[in-house]
Amino acid sequence: MSNEIKLNPALDRLALKKAFDVNRRIHIPRILTPDSAERVHRAITTETDWHLVFNEGDKTHTIYPEQIKLLSAEKIQKIREAVLGQAREGFQFMYNDYNIYDYYLNGKNMDHFLHRFHEFLNSQEFLGLVREITGVESVKFADSQATAYGPGHFLTLHHDEVQGKNRKFAYVFNFTRNWQLDWGGILQFLGKDGNVEGGFVPCFNALNMFEVPQDHAVSYVAPFAPEVRYSIAGWIRETDDSHLVKK
Fold first, then answer.
1. How far apart are CA 187 and CA 209, in angstroms?
2. Cα angle value 18/21/23 (rounded, 5°)
3. Is 218's pLDDT higher than 50?
4. At 201, phi and psi to the nearest 5?
């Protein structure tokens, strides 16, 4: 299996641009070559040590793998109850994370294959595709994180716009096999009337991309879901702020 990451050469870029222009969002199946998708899938499912992340207001908490092993079932349940309680009042998230961008900038785990994916995201091959589809020539940088949503994980309503981040588009590369709609984990888009006006079900080797800001959420993954929702996600920006990140 090759370690090279390549876009599917059969993509119809003109058709993709027309589709994106309708709602300024798009679902692109078979985005990578089959070998590329399989290699990323292997990395994200078998080669990644996950962190548990959740927020408390504006503060993000990260529990690292070695810390997770020390937590009792009672402590984990208390964390879940607190997170669900906070979700009743405002923005809240909880899922497993591997922050590729952060590790990459700090020179950690550089042999991890997901760091090759970060380099692919910032290549002219990928950014050129984004420019062709969106018509926005100014994009020049993408950050990245791998995510794994299991039962009880979610991301509530938000719009991704943060002052000074220069985010133009959000993206989600999907690496989930055989997901069913009833299991949750759906990327949902809300209209001005508060109703769901569209959504994308997790799948394998597909790219979801949408313009920022757009109101969206990832629906609660059901307790009976037998699989994990794997993806690599982040934002495509007009500026590279890596020099501002504390190392």
1. 11
2. 130
3. yes
4. -85, 140
* 0.90 surpassed by pTM: yes
pLDDT (mean) for 78-100: 95
What's the rounded mean pLDDT across residues 171-181?
Answer: 97
Q: Give domain status of residue 79, yes or no.
A: no
Does the structure show a pLDDT above 90 at 145?
Answer: yes
User: Cα(246)–Cα(178) distance, rounded to whole angstroms?
Assistant: 39
Phi, psi (rounded to 5 degrees) for 217: -155, 160
- Closest Cα to residue 234, out of 172, 186, 183? 172
| Integer Cα distance of 104 and 114 in angstroms | 9
Indicate the number of domains in the chain.
Answer: 1
CATH number at residue 169: 2.60.120.620
What range does the domain containing 130 cover?
A: 13-49+109-244
pLDDT at 135 over 50: yes
**10 phi/psi in degrees, rounded to 5:** -90, 5
Helix axes 13-23, 124-134, angle to 10 degrees: 60
